Amino acid sequence: MPNIILLSGDGIGPEIMAEAGRVLNRVNEQHALGISTEQCLIGGAAIDATGEPLPDETLTKSKDADAVLFGAVGGPKWDSLPMHKRPEKGLLKIRAGMDLFANLRPALLYPELASASTLREEVVSGLDLLIVRELIGGIYFGEPRGIEGEPGQRVGYNTDRYSEPEIERIGRIAFDAAMARDKKLCSVDKANVLEVTVLWREVMERLSQEYPDVELWHMYVDNAAMQLVRAPKQFDVMVTGNLFGDILSDAAAMLTGSIGMLPSASLNSQKQGLYEPCHGSAPDIAGQDLANPLATILSVSMMLLHSLNAPKAAQAIEDAVKSVLASGLRTKDIATGASGEQIVGCRAMGEAVLKALT
Ligand code: NAD
């Protein structure tokens, strides 16, 4: 029986998770998935209760579960704590503890929201791309690292390193994802300057022999950044390392107009995953029924697809979200002022998705 850990966290976390939880319960019944869920603590809420941003119990239960659904962490209340005690550390620790090396971030523009993008409608309408980012290696984790030397002469340094097995495992996730989509994979590197990405490119080429149906091509990261805002629809799946992926996935997110719409998945080699919206805890609107729950609801859909092998239930959620948007309902963050729009709160948006599911 699949077991899901729910981590609401802080700020708008509990509000968006309440709606996502209701959607999960509904598809669980409708598709007889036999899923059981359990709430655990993380972030500021965990600090308040236990003194730790990621209590041992939460990590142990998450490692034993089939998947984790996560809201958001952080807020001004905990901003003055030392770095290692801050709520955000809870998220970094659970990613590392579960060995979640693959971050999947779709950027999908719903036709109804095309005018919410900062780019011209014809550039982004129909956009549907997936960024696959390596999440627990590269320069963010490489050793040696540090700041050394005498004041005035100090040197700061980090190390960008990837081993062949690390590149291969993220490459496989990306090729598999491309196989399930339009079979086009763009690998992003800086192989004209960085040896670590020369190796990256070699391994991607080698892997492509195993996926003859996927068209693989390579792009330098500076060009990729430019192409993402010039002609983003040329991409189907992009795969890249931790640093480049961090930057490119945020740029891709903004193509779609609102961060409140974007789900994400972080997977390990057993396809166990942590699923979360791309946004943070939005303390400025917390507790006011203003948050958009759709990114978290769409994260449930990704969870059903990637960790629970329930593609029909996943599709049902996506269809329900599409029909709610088509009916004109909008939370404030995705309102464009177009006629026919009706502004609703977090709770009513969740309710509408539930209704569309029936
Ligand atoms: P944020 O994503 O929380 O908010 C940025 C802006 O987007 C705000 O104006 C907010 O109101 C709006 N917004 C975000 N999500 C929304 C939603 N679902 N519906 C409507 N509007 C939404 O980023 P921030 O303000 O830089 O950070 C706030 C806190 O969140 C900080 O403590 C930060 O460390 C934390 N944070 C957590 C995560 C995470 O848990 N994964 C990620 C980023 C930031």
Radius of gyration: 20 Å
State the total count of DSSP E strands.
Answer: 14
Please tell me the overall pLDDT.
95
Class by SSE composition: alpha/beta
- Assembly annotation: single chain
Which small-molecule ligands are present, each listed once? Answer: nicotinamide-adenine-dinucleotide
**Apparent shape:** globular
Largest sheet, described in full? 10 strands, mixed
Gap between N and C termini = 24 Å
User: Fraction of residues in helices?
Assistant: 40-55%
| Strand residue percentage | 15-25%
Low-confidence stretches: none
Q: Write the element-wise H/E pattern from the N-terminal end onward.
A: EHEHHEHEHEEEHEHEHEHEEHHEEH
Strands of the widest sheet, in order across it, are: 2-1-3-12-11-4-5-10-8-9
What's the number of helices? 12
Chart the SSEs and their pairings:
Blueprint (H helix, E strand, L loop, with lengths): L2 E7 L3 H18 L5 E4 L3 H8 L5 H9 L2 E6 L14 H11 L4 E7 L12 H4 L3 E7 L11 E3 L6 E3 L6 H16 L4 E6 L5 H14 L6 E6 H10 L6 E4 L1 H14 L7 E5 L5 E5 L16 H13 L4 H16 L2 E2 L11 E2 L2 H12 L1
Parallel strand pairs: 1-2, 1-3, 3-12, 5-10, 8-9, 8-10, 13-14
Antiparallel strand pairs: 4-5, 4-11, 6-7, 11-12
Bound molecules: nicotinamide-adenine-dinucleotide.
The site of nicotinamide-adenine-dinucleotide (NAD) has 21 residues, from α4.
Q: Can you walk me through this structure?
A:
The chain is of the alpha/beta class and about 350 residues long. It has 12 helices and 14 strands. The strands form 3 sheets. A 10-stranded mixed β-sheet has the order 2-1-3-12-11-4-5-10-8-9, sandwiched between helices. A hairpin with a 5-residue loop joins strand 11 and strand 12. Helix 11 crosses helix 12. The longest helix is centred in the N-terminal third of the chain and has 18 residues. The protein is globular, with a radius of gyration of 20 Å. The model has no long low-confidence stretch (mean pLDDT about 95). The protein binds nicotinamide-adenine-dinucleotide. Nicotinamide-adenine-dinucleotide (NAD) binds next to helix 4.
